[in-house]
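Re-running the complex after MR caught last week's input typo. The corrected sequence lines follow. Everything else is unchanged.
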Amino acid sequence: MSLNIFICGVGGQGLVLLTSVIGDACVKKGRKVVTGEMYGLSQRSGAVSVHLRIGEDVFSPLIPYGGADILLALEAIEALRYLEYLKKDGIVLMNSRVMHPPVETARIVASKGTKYITLEDVVSNLRKWTNKIAVVDALALARESGNINTENTVFLGCLSTLEAFPVEENFIRESISDAVPKKTVEQNLKAFELGKRSAHGMLCKLVPCRYPL
Amino acid sequence: MVLKDVLSKENKKAFMLCNEAIARGALEADVKVVAFYPGAPASEILDTFSDALGSFDYQMEIATNEKVALEICAGAAFAGVRSLTAMKSVGANVASDMLFVLGYTGVRGGLVIVMADDPHAHSSQSEEDGRFFAPNTYLPMLEPSTPQEAKNMVKKAFEISERHRVPVIIRTVTRVNHQSGIVKLGNIERSEFKKVKWKELKEEYTTLGEVARQKKLKMLERSARLLKEFEKSEFNLTHNPESKVGIVTSSVSYLYVLEALKMLNLNDKVRILKLGTTYPLPKETISNFIRTLNEVIVVEELSPYLEKEIFVLAKDINSSIKIFGKSSGTFSEAWEYNPSIVAKGIAAALDIAYPGYEQIVREAKQFKSTIPDRYPTFCAGCPHRATFVALSQALRIQASKGQEHYFSNDIGCYSMWVFPPISMTDSSLCMGASVGVANGLSHVIEERVVAAVGDSTFYHAAIPALIDAVHNGNKFTLVILDNSVTAMTGQQSNPSTEFTAGGRQGKKVSIENICKAIGVEFLEIVDSYDVKNNVEVFRKALEYDGLAVVISRRECALYGDRNKRRKGEKIVPFYVDKQICKRPYVCLRTFYCPAYEIDNEQQPRISADICDGCSVCSKLCPIQSIKRVEAEK
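Corrected-run output:
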């Protein structure tokens, strides 16, 4: 059995750290893990994506089209950008946060009547692919944790509740503590807890979860 | 976490990026001198060595360009010291002059050269196939598929290099460099760094005329010896039972083949030859593999490097074999592959059913047609954005006076002027070409030529072209964007930075002093953030009847933020005062900052968590409606 997660977001949201924590937790648990990372040209605000694969029979750093069990989008628009990688009826775990790229704002300024794409637009398009869509207000939870940069850790909390996720939360908590700056460990662990709790309110109603409340 | 693993003395397993595994392998091999110029997808090798510099005893330079980096390593290797450099594909072009002579002279100490190609041109100007450097320079080449194999190969490469007294190329591709996986750490046993006596090692490293002709013969003998050794290399794997169809592959394509066979339910049914030594190509190994096959499928990205050799070998060994690859149209020479593309190719060659992937890609395309592109863009606070605003205003003013222009761009973060919504560039080519091309254009076009180059690219390859401009009296405007670091690849230091690798103190090399020494007569230095003043400076530089150089200086925003955090300084964002804003949209129409959005009332809004507090937009606003957050209190 393998688990394929396609992770996407915007440069600066901490996708690489998120990947590194999961990878390290897999090593601790003794799971095979392979990733393929694409950072893009710009240091910030560009599209970033990671193919993350856990299981004994995974080889390629890239997930085949239609092969991802989970599409994890740290930014809402990005959830649609890589739709071809998601299995039909696969799980979408996404941020409600929409970050409008400058080109979109420029278009609205240039021509009256054009509107921003909304979270609802994105979700309604995703629904044509799958009904298993969990939307998390990760920014609000990150803020609640005391550190606005912990959106990525919120999603680690969500992922850890999934029955299909083959690494228990104690390994992830340990890897988080190893990976983040010392003075932010507590905030990150809080963000992790908040992510877990939010998953129970939404994600776990769609798919089997590990720690039923 | 990852650096901790790179430094670890334990023989444990660790999750590592391939580039980190390469660095770890070299450390395990007791490498003593490393030198690099950063470039995706190889930059993290440099970064890892820079981070580890305090923990181990080795010499490191972040060199001005790839050729200098290779020469540094060659110097060390001539004296019997192990050295390693890594460069991106197009960096190898810059280093290639040295690469060719090293084939002739050879080395004493192990010299390993990591060459990282970028199929799909994710972060490069071309889809170069660097494999052809190996047969052309007669340097042996190894190609890993995974981080673990890359680490093993680096260690082995040092041994091969010393045994045959030749530099060894490790050729990677983006999907290998930027692949992470589990790596088993080996022993780190570091010897003490000490200087050696040249007197005891002395020999001649020359090649010219008759010397070169004699060395060419030696080089051919060396390749023959290497070929013999590679026929038995552990890096060439054959697996799965005998079958009438076989696959020959290498690099990341090997992993796609394994995945594709799984997708086609052919797991153990097709015999595979995975080549790890791709120069000299182990001809006997390949011949033995194809001898009894009816069909062979060659899976390799970019050029038909393996395939052409297989055609040649098949002629004598198995002339009736059917060869599927590029020439059969099964696979393309364009773009990178993935498991789906490889599965489709294998299915087509074997004439078995496979639904393909076009349907799912097409369907997804239809559902995502509404989303905006997210082009690479300047970070919030980027000084290049401010330089762009001033320069484009100056160009507009000049255009209204009848002076048109050609914009000659270069390689660096400012390359993003190419992308919408800015889209201001006539040419963007290769390192330093902005100035070289400006020379040629200035002879033949009526419009004013404007060239732009960053600090790192200036040192790397633009100085000779600027000397040419002064010497020949060429007339154009050059903007040097000095942001203190090599920003695009991750803010590495360069001669414009006050420190060197590992954060050690370095001497800044003044760009203005170089310009003055060359004899540039119009030279202005401005603060990139001072947009209003800079419009006038750029205008003068455009009107100047000669070569005009403007240095637009302000440190990279991310680098600046890092320094601020270190000093405990806060980043204070700006906001739009809704009472004052009358929506002239100057901010939105000219600045294109990712911190900006329009709110429901059609007013500009700044995201406090993205805003870098650079203040430039507040200076652009004609009605002063953009204020620093603290001013609110």
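None of the earlier attempt is carried over here. Chain B touches chain A through 68 residues (CB under 8 Å). Residues 383-565 of chain B form a domain with the Rossmann fold fold (CATH 3.40.50.970).
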